[in-house]
Design goal:
Number of domains: 1
Number of strands: 0
Structural class: mainly alpha
Strand content: under 5%
Order of helices and strands: HHHHHHHHHH
Shape: globular
Distance between the termini: 24 Å
Radius of gyration: 17 Å
Number of helices: 10
Helix content: over 70%
């Protein structure tokens, strides 16, 4: 049981620093350890991310920090919330068609490896790639819709996809993108959880595990927030790149194991 808390704590701390939520780390690591079903891991990961983002964003807003751009972040968050519902439906459809939890796990792991690899390539080369400054409300909502759909289907709550979008479409630096990413994740995860509850789609899980992971998410948010203040953008980016490389390796292994399971 302690493993769940440690994974949630470490992943949420790293997620709070980099703005990736932690789910992108929790999901593949718990898949690797094979301690719960694929559906339960996705649900527990989302709840952990929600607890961490609630603390981080709430603390930031109470402190009246100006790192979150409400004019950009809010329409993105609205779109991500709607996209999260679509991603949930897609996940349910894949699960129903496959008839095997291993097939669903393999599809998720392969998609996560591909998305993370693309994110890593962009991050390494972003200094040579021109960026945009999107301001249109409808465009922000549409971008958020895609973000929410991908994140929900992959069971990661948000993650590196958010950062690449914020870098490219809104010309944000690393730390500003991290703060706005957590804001988007908070909205999408609240909507995602409500939809899961309302449709009675909650998978079987153990309550003590949920409590431990939620506590780890909040603890990680506290630690990550403090470390983020002490780190410059370059240090945050180096940590982000290292985490992406690790996630790719784990996801490739998980794809192979589920496919041959």
């Amino acid at each position: 049981m302690l493993v769940f808390f440690i994974v949630a704590l470490a992943a949420s701390a790293a997620g709070a620093i980099c703005g990736i939520g932690g789910g992108v780390i929790i999901k593949p690591v718990l898949d690797l350890l094979h301690l719960e079903t694929v559906s339960a891991i996705s649900f527990l990961s989302g709840c952990t991310v929600l607890s961490m983002s609630c603390y981080s964003v709430g603390k930031s807003l109470l402190a009246k920090e100006r790192s979150v751009s409400l004019t950009v972040g809010t329409p993105l968050a609205v779109g991500a919330a709607a996209g999260g519902l679509a991603g949930n439906q897609l996940f349910a459809a894949v699960r129903a068609m496959s008839g095997s939890p291993n097939t669903v796990g393999a599809v998720q792991a392969a998609c996560l490896a591909a998305v993370t690899a693309g994110t890593l390539l962009y991050t390494v080369n972003k200094s040579r790639i021109p960026t945009c400054r999107v301001q249109n409300f409808a465009a922000c909502v549409a971008i958020g819709l895609v973000l929410g759909g991908m994140s929900s289907f992959l069971g990661i709550g948000g993650g590196p996809i958010n950062l690449v979008v914020l870098y490219y479409f809104f010309s944000m630096d690393t730390k500003t993108a991290a703060a706005n990413s957590l804001y988007i994740i908070l909205f999408s995860q609240i909507c995602n959880l409500l939809a899961t509850l309302c449709t009675n789609a909650v998978p079987p899980f153990r309550w003590p595990v949920l409590a431990l992971m939620a506590a780890g998410g909040i603890g990680g948010g506290i630690i990550g927030r403090k470390l983020n203040r002490r780190m410059d953008s370059r240090a945050v980016e180096r940590l982000f790149i290292a985490l992406m490389a690790l996630i790719i390796l784990i996801s490739v292994f998980n794809t192979w194991r589920y496919a041959n399971g």
